[in-house]
Design brief:
Layout: E1 9-12, H1 18-29, E2 33-36, H2 41-53, E3 58-60, H3 70-82, E4 87-90, H4 105-139, E5 146-153, H5 154-158, H6 164-183, E6 189-196, H7 202-205, E7 213-216, E8 219-222, H8 227-236, H9 245-254, E9 267-270
Parallel strand pairs: 1-2, 1-4, 2-3, 4-5, 5-6, 6-9
Antiparallel strand pairs: 7-8
Pfam family, one: adh_short_C2
GO biological process, one term: monocarboxylic acid metabolic process
Protein name: Beta-ketoacyl-ACP reductase
Length: about 280
């Protein structure tokens, strides 16, 4: 039995851990060939090995999505390794929260850079490849659809106190999604977004009042969700619990599958019915 993504080349940023890891495995399970990215090489290589263990192909392009030249290197890795570019999932990111009066310029810019500027640069770097491929296919009378899935959040669709930087970036990526759907429609590229609600990852598992941190480019950043707030949120989720990374990956896959070929410029909320 063949998969729905057999032979397709998928680039997934931030796929060394959590939701990104599961997105990579889901796409691989349908036959995609993966370019794995993570800020750190070790988790990226672990995901690549997990993909290969399923029988699928994978290569690694480690490094920060915000570093100069990364976008071009990411696209080149896919082209050099597999000779194509069919799916881009802009998933990399983290949170660095604070109320507006305490948020520094560095906090604001870091989150805008990773969640909004980096996807823009990746799509810009992909344009020459996608344009050339689309023109070749059109000349041959072929209609080949490619996919872009941008990751947003209910913080972007509805705002979230204490996350003005993250909310702004995740709202902005929805604007990117709608614009690129119009720009790239002529190339047969479906551009959509998934806005995650409460999903259990390393960014939410720890307590915001505790000592849970992540390391991002030599910065120790506090993460986690207040346990009382998480309990309150769970009571507001119609399906009765927070989501899993595997379920989040399933929502992304919906926009990568051929059944979504006539859907573009849209976003879906993966949140168990929870909206803000």
């Amino acid at each position: 039995m063949t998969g729905k993504l057999d032979g397709r080349v998928a680039l997934v940023s931030g796929s060394g851990r959590g939701i990104g890891h599961e997105i990579a495995l889901k796409l691989a399970s349908e036959g995609a060939r993966l370019v794995i990215n993570d800020l750190d090489a070790d988790p990226a290589n672990e995901t690549a090995e997990a993909v290969r263990a399923t029988g699928a192909e994978a290569v690694v392009c480690a490094g920060s999505v915000t570093e100069d030249g990364f976008a071009e290197r990411f696209i080149k890795t896919g082209m050099d390794s597999f000779g194509g570019l069919d799916i881009i999932v802009n998933n990399a990111g983290y949170t660095w929260d604070s109320v507006v009066q305490k948020m520094t310029d560095e906090q604001w810019q870091a989150i805008i850079d990773v969640h909004l500027t980096a996807p823009f640069k990746i799509l810009r770097a992909a344009q020459p490849v996608i344009s050339a491929k689309a023109k070749e296919e059109a000349a041959a009378g072929q209609e080949v659809f490619r996919k872009v899935v941008n990751i947003s959040s209910i913080a972007g669709t509805g705002g979230n106190a204490g996350q003005i930087n993250y909310s702004a970036a995740k709202a902005g990526i929805l604007g990117v999604t709608r614009t690129m759907a119009k720009e790239w429609g002529r190339y047969k590229v479906n551009v959509n977004a998934v806005a995650f609600g409460p999903i259990r990852t390393r960014l939410t598992e720890g307590s915001a009042d505790g000592d849970s941190t992540i390391q991002v480019e030599e910065k120790e950043i506090k993460v986690g969700v207040n346990p009382d707030l998480l309990t309150q949120m769970e009571r507001m989720i119609p399906l009765g619990r927070v989501g899993t990374p595997e379920e989040a990956a399933g929502a992304v896959y919906l926009f990568c599958a051929p059944e979504s070929n006539f859907i573009s410029g849209q976003h879906v909320i993966c949140g168990g019915g929870f909206v803000i």
